[in-house]
Design a protein that fits this description.
261 residues; six-stranded mixed beta sheet; four-stranded antiparallel beta sheet; 7 helices
Length: 261
């Protein structure tokens, strides 16, 4: 396992000794899992299919309750969904009867959300739509949006909540290569400007190398962190193939080992 130096700021999100076993299951899904994410940091999580990456994200989001360990944000233990923790999935899950703008605003209606006045609510929605470059499409219906526009809308719905923590479950996996690259650059800009601590679940090593400050590898049954790599290269990294090659080879070797053991 590679050595990880100290993270640059106190963690905004921390998982300590997290374990999860579903009732009646023969084995746990997660065990003794530790994770820290600093403000403005992108931590990518890789691992074999079915290892528990999405389950981990659901635990961090408060959608699953661990059997052991704790999740905390800014040192305060989380025991339920928190309004400053936003999550987006591969499927944008837009409501087809609402315009783009109203889909973005819909995130402000979620349970536990702070009640906002009309002016602040509209200000948040406008800023989120502008952040993803969709002002021109704010009155369009979901059926008229491209895949990339739909994902931008889902991301804007998260941003409207002004999250301290952003959780992303393979949000770009269904997009074509060009749109995927555009969304990756958009994510980098948003994290740089807004500074949410970000956890990205991905199956793509190259995506993790391009975006991440740190990469974690989950493996085993039950799953635990079996490898970590810091990525200290400056952005953009599109053409840094040689610089990331050695790390990519090490991650791929570790991933293959995790799949076959």
């Amino acid at each position: 396992m590679s050595y990880i130096g100290p993270i640059p700021a106190p963690p905004v999100l921390q998982a300590s000794g997290v374990a999860l076993r579903y009732p009646g299951a023969a084995a746990a899904v997660l065990t003794g899992l530790n994770l820290t994410v600093a403000p403005g940091e992108i931590v990518s999580v890789l691992g074999p299919s079915g290892v528990g990456k999405s389950t981990l994200l659901r635990v961090l989001a408060g959608l699953e309750t661990p059997n052991a360990g704790r999740i905390s944000m800014d040192g305060i233990v989380l025991d339920a969904v928190h309004p400053e923790v936003a999550i987006a999935f591969q499927n944008p899950s837009l409501l087809p009867w609402l315009t783009l703008e109203k889909n973005v605003a819909f995130g402000l209606n979620f349970k536990h959300q702070k009640r906002l006045g009309a002016r602040e609510r509209q200000s948040r929605v406008d800023a989120a739509i502008d952040a993803v470059g969709l002002r021109h499409a704010r009155h369009q219906m979901p059926a008229t949006l491209s895949g990339g526009m739909a994902q931008r809308t889902a991301l804007a719905r998260c941003l409207a909540r002004d999250p301290k923590v952003l959780l992303l479950d393979e949000p770009f996996g269904a997009l074509d290569e060009v749109t995927r690259a555009e969304m990756q650059h958009l994510l980098l800009r948003i994290v740089r400007e807004r500074r949410p601590g970000t956890v990205l679940i991905t199956h793509d090593i190259d995506e993790a190398l391009m975006l991440s400050d740190r990469i974690l590898l989950l493996g085993g049954r039950p799953a635990e962190v079996i490898g970590q790599w810091p990525i200290s290269l400056a952005h953009p990294r599109d053409d840094l193939i040689a610089e990331t090659g050695a790390v990519r080879t090490e991650i791929l070797r570790s991933l293959r080992h995790a799949i076959h053991h």
